[in-house]
Amino acid sequence: MNESASAARTPGGPDPSTSRRILDATAEVLGRSGMSKLSLSEVALQAGVSRPTLYRWFSSKDELIEEFSRYEQELFDSGIARATAGLRGNERLDAALRFIVEFQSSYSGVRMVDIEPGQVLSRIALVLPVMRERLERMISGPDRAVAAATVTRVAVCHYIVRGEDADDFLAQLRHAAGLKPRTS
Questions:
Q1: How many CA atoms lie within 13 A of 62 on its CB side?
Q2: What is the rounded distance in angstroms from the CA atom of residue 167 to the CA atom of residue 179?
Q3: Phi, psi (deg, nearest 5) at residue 59
Q4: Which DSSP category does 85 fall into?
Q5: pTM of the model
Q6: Greater model confidence, 140 or 108
């Protein structure tokens, strides 16, 4: 984050929700255009801000993309933390799996895989070990490392080749994690 972006986030500076609007707009624009064709003008238009305002927050395209990557990870991490708060054992794991399905179903950034698969695959290579390690902490049993790796790969597969049925996706994640099928 550049100095002007840091200064802009201090009390009395621009509203921090502006930064979030810009980052949310970045997801939308990335989903339409991809990273290589990301236009700061298009991001500013999508966010409803002027280019000078965008530049007060992010001094360059590279800085915006770097901050967007952190923001995207923070969205996922905070969402999964909220979904699993106060839960233990299999309830916690199930809540995490449901969150993964919801996140992939609703987050506009997942469409980037259709536009720039190479960028997405390089990003997945970085995220895979982190996601696997976090899931492994939620899974019990002697095969938890294998189960966590399998859940992670099923989730990535659904990210890359989107299915139509969220319930089926969740059932696959539950099966990979070793959770018993839920009955209605």
A1: 1
A2: 14
A3: -80, -15
A4: T
A5: 0.80
A6: 140
> Among 8, 16, 119, which Cα is nearest to 71's?
16
49 phi, psi to nearest 5 deg: -130, 165
Domains of the chain, CATH where assigned: 1-67 (1.10.10.60), 86-184 (no CATH)
- The one-letter code for the residue type at 134 is R
Provide the CA 38 distance to its chain's centre, in angstroms.
18
Residue 36: what pLDDT?
A: 85
Q: How far apart are CA 161 and CA 52, in angstroms?
A: 38
The neighbour count for residue 104, using CB atoms within 10 Å, is 19
Render pLDDT for 9-32 as a digit per residue (tens, 0 to 9): 444 455 679 999 999 999 889 888
Name residue 182's amino acid.
R
Mean pLDDT of the chain: 86
Q: Where are the alpha helices (DSSP H) in the chain?
A: 3-8, 16-33, 40-47, 51-57, 61-84, 89-106, 112-115, 117-138, 144-160, 166-177
Which pLDDT does position 108 carry in this prediction?
65
What per-residue confidence (pLDDT) applies to 10? 42
Tokens of 154: 């099923």
